[in-house]
Amino acid sequence: MRQAAIYVQDSFCGVMTENEEGFHFRYDQAYLNRPESLPVSPTMPLTEAPYEKEIMFPVFDGLIPEGWLLDIASKSWKIDPRDRMGLLLACCKDCIGDISVKPLADV
Fold this sequence. Notes:
107 residues, 5-stranded antiparallel beta sheet, 4 helices
């Protein structure tokens, strides 16, 4: 099982988990209680209910490099291009835009 801390505009908003059943995302309760909180995506509105999917959520998958950048990342970190969680954890700590991802162990 691998976990990632998800941030929106540098504010911790929740945890994404990958296990043998797929991917799971849950917003942090403290984040939900703040009136200025933003969802990670229009397709994942703020809710206490967890999100579950067999494949990676599109909003997070879209953060992973593509094309020649994916080739460089995959070769540099020796990560299989199909290991979406591994690539997300390695490449998306400081993304362009509102969302960033950190390994939960680093938090």
